[in-house]
UniProtKB/TrEMBL annotation:
<dbReference type="Pfam" id="PF00175">
    <property type="entry name" value="NAD_binding_1"/>
</dbReference>
<dbReference type="InterPro" id="IPR050415">
    <property type="entry name" value="MRET"/>
</dbReference>
<protein>
    <recommendedName>
        <fullName>FAD-binding FR-type domain-containing protein</fullName>
    </recommendedName>
</protein>
<dbReference type="GO" id="GO:0016491">
    <property type="term" value="F:oxidoreductase activity"/>
</dbReference>
<feature type="domain" description="FAD-binding FR-type">
    <location>
        <begin position="1"/>
        <end position="101"/>
    </location>
</feature>
<dbReference type="InterPro" id="IPR001433">
    <property type="entry name" value="OxRdtase_FAD/NAD-bd"/>
</dbReference>
<dbReference type="InterPro" id="IPR017938">
    <property type="entry name" value="Riboflavin_synthase-like_b-brl"/>
</dbReference>
<dbReference type="InterPro" id="IPR017927">
    <property type="entry name" value="FAD-bd_FR_type"/>
</dbReference>
<dbReference type="InterPro" id="IPR039261">
    <property type="entry name" value="FNR_nucleotide-bd"/>
</dbReference>
Length: 221
């Protein structure tokens, strides 16, 4: 399945992240946490596919992706920054491995928070957000995605930490075994991980060593 859809609007989120809101094809559905391969519908770009997670609610009238652009090389995300209303993207079949399995802790590194956006928005909209925790690490405060929205979700515990922003009043700690011993009161719930491959691999190992049930650890494969 492949379909070209029109961009309705782009909305700034941070200095290098935007919401891309698109028309929604009839019958095109997804579950919170799922993604699809996206291409830019322009000559020279149609065969360059990148996976992006849907960040809107599953019953929204339009589709939304929240995408970080990397300006240090001429790739898809850099080209996306040049697009606006009326341009087109190519969408394909829906897939994804991060599905909500019950209350737990969502741990993200940087733009790795994007697969959690639709899940947490859906839990919030359906009155099931309480009892969940979100922990996100960024280099600086200006890199944080949707800080105000997440903090407004009543019942969601949120912990922000930065690793390269000495002027910030947020935590200045890396998410590692010492961090988890300090900030996670128990390891009984589910864990959802997304971020750089090395970070996710380290966290999986640390959770297992700390006694978490590996069957309750979900990550983007």
């Amino acid at each position: 399945m492949q379909v070209s859809v029109r961009i309705l609007d782009t909305i700034p989120v941070t200095h290098n992240v935007r919401h891309y809101r698109l028309e929604r094809p009839k019958g095109y559905g997804f579950s919170p946490g799922q993604a699809t391969e996206v291409s830019i519908d322009r000559d020279g770009w149609r065969d360059q596919k990148r996976p992006f997670t849907f960040t809107c609610l599953p019953d929204a009238d339009m589709l939304e992706f929240t995408i970080k652009s990397y300006f240090d090389h001429s790739g898809v995300t850099n080209e996306l920054w040049s697009l606006g209303s009326g341009d087109h993207l190519i969408l394909r079949d829906v897939w994804g491995t991060i599905q909500y399995k019950g209350q737990g802790t969502f741990i993200a590194g940087g733009a790795g928070v994007t697969p959690f956006i639709a899940i947490l928005r859906h839990l919030n909209a359906t009155g099931r957000i309480a009892g969940n925790r979100l922990i996100v690490s960024n280099r600086t405060e200006k890199d944080i995605i949707l800080l105000e929205e997440f903090e407004a979700m009543e019942g969601l515990e949120v912990i922000w930490t930065v690793t390269d922003d000495p002027r910030s009043k947020l935590l200045q700690e890396r998410i590692d075994a010492a961090f988890m011993r300090k900030h996670l009161p128990d390891l009984d719930g589910n864990f959802y991980l997304c971020g750089p491959d090395a970070m996710v691999a380290d966290l999986r190992g640390q959770l297992e060593e700390a006694g978490a049930d590996v069957g309750k650890v979900t990550w983007e494969k």
